[in-house]
Amino acid sequence: MLIVTTNEVPGHRIDAVFGEVMGLTVRSRDIGSQMLAGFRSLGGGELPEMTKALYESRQEVMGRMVNEAQQRGANAIVAMRFDTSEMGGNWTEVCAYGTAVYIIPLKEGEEGATGQSVYLTQQGQQPNDQPGNTQL
């Protein structure tokens, strides 16, 4: 699944739009990490416990968003964004959202084609088949 924050994918044509997809989680902070982070915040700097929790939350919501897009038949998500907010004193909401689409790489000679899209068409691959592209 190709995920981009742009509204278009260079070298690709959006062939179908399946609508908005999202992944959502609400997490509570565990008291131990919260206390440790509180002590660390006195000295300034990064709070590794909170960084880890936010990173894990983002990975979780990305996976949920990708699953929803795949269920609709999409092979890409455009205009992806994250939203994070506090709920109450100890809860954090993390949301990933974007537009599920089906994209087709442009062939050599087509206006807007890129080296990547030409390569994909020559190999008979779709964007979700690209080497190094992992499924969440």
From TrEMBL:
<dbReference type="Pfam" id="PF01906">
    <property type="entry name" value="YbjQ_1"/>
</dbReference>
<comment type="similarity">
    <text>Belongs to the UPF0145 family.</text>
</comment>
<dbReference type="InterPro" id="IPR035439">
    <property type="entry name" value="UPF0145_dom_sf"/>
</dbReference>
<dbReference type="InterPro" id="IPR002765">
    <property type="entry name" value="UPF0145_YbjQ-like"/>
</dbReference>
<protein>
    <recommendedName>
        <fullName>UPF0145 protein SAMN04489745_2791</fullName>
    </recommendedName>
</protein>
